[in-house]
Write a structure and sequence with these properties.
The chain is α/β, with parallel strands linked by helices. The chain is built from 14 helices and 19 strands. The two termini are 27 Å apart.
Amino acid sequence: MNSPKYFGTDGLRGKSPNGLLTPEFTLKLGKAIGYHLGNSGTVVIATDTRSSCHLIESALCSGLNSVGVSVISMGTLPTPGLSYIVSQMPDVHLGIMVSASHNPVSYNGIKVLGNDGMKISEDTEHKIEGLLDNHPLEPSHYRELGTSRRDTTLITTYIQHLKETFQHLDLSGWHIAMDCANGASYAVAPNLFRDLGAKVDVINDTPDGNNINAGCGSTHPEIVANLVRETGAHMGVSFDGDADRVICTTAQGGIVSGDDLLAVCALHMKNKGTLNKNSVVTTVMSNSGLEKSLKNAGISMVRTAVGDKHVLQALLDQGITLGGEESGHVIFRECGNMGDGIVSALKLLEVLRETNTSLEDATAFIETYPQIMKNVHTTEKIPLANMPQTTAIINHYASKIAGRGAILVRYSGTEELLRIMVEGEDMDEIQSIVSSIEQTYNAEKREM
């Protein structure tokens, strides 16, 4: 089966309103989803804080209503919050999250969740795309229009779930610096951490529709690292735009990646006998040093393709309870069906509380190989299989550093970027490899 045409690694993603997610396309997508549901049923929609969310939500609602599907709009909510709420509402058939996650405000996205709270399968994505491209989608077969209503109180269901999950966690005496990325976490995280007893200093918690992820959040952890040093906090937490990922920082300002968070929690769970199969799931992007560190601790690592939906599928297929990505998506199966940045941060604090240790000491056992990630902007994603010179240089260097490093070159599933990742023992060598691959790619692309 070919890869989906419109859906990427995390739903549909594109610029709005002048890119993929135009009002016309989004209206048609709403109809296609409605036809997939059989011209009936109920869909719940939530958004992050982007100015384009209202336009996209309105078009989706119009498309869904026009073919007989009803809509409940919840307003601003973290994606994992929508996942939990949908899974608790038996009369709801799908959830739709309007968000471009960590991307800048010029982008937006649409994530479609099943009534189990999980992202829909690739097979379902293909079916919806088939309706988009090959079906007239005329609203001629419905018996009556769907209805739309707004219910912003449903967010309390998610908040109460988090409070009950962590009711045992006493954060009294802990000082947390928090960056909400001017995104969806601002409506949940600061008060939740305070309710659990923590002192919280918050930045980027005043969204205006245009400042989401603007030089802040999980892609800029140095911002909260500075706040940690300024305030004397014990640690920092940075969420992304829809709060499904988190990057933390130590009291000294050191960056704690999703890999690091995963490792700390995995080791603690193994010591308690709660890490099923003494294994974790990560992606091909995870640092080789993580695999070595976990192996030394008696923990096996299973790698998947990039994307938290692939991580979740491996967890389900292999009966493993913990997995995640270097970017900060970490999935605790006991807590839900997707990564939740708020849950991940609290799980990490739970470990630090139970072991009476600092974040810096807790991560000391993790070895990290030098790694460079270079994003190369591209206007056309030419398949690498059709670029023999680029493929040859990648294979050459992969063979050269085999056993002491790794190379991964792929197109982003959410942005117009070629991502070049190289890791190894020597920083000068991997810098040279990244430069050679980038130059070869750009030169070959100009020739085509």
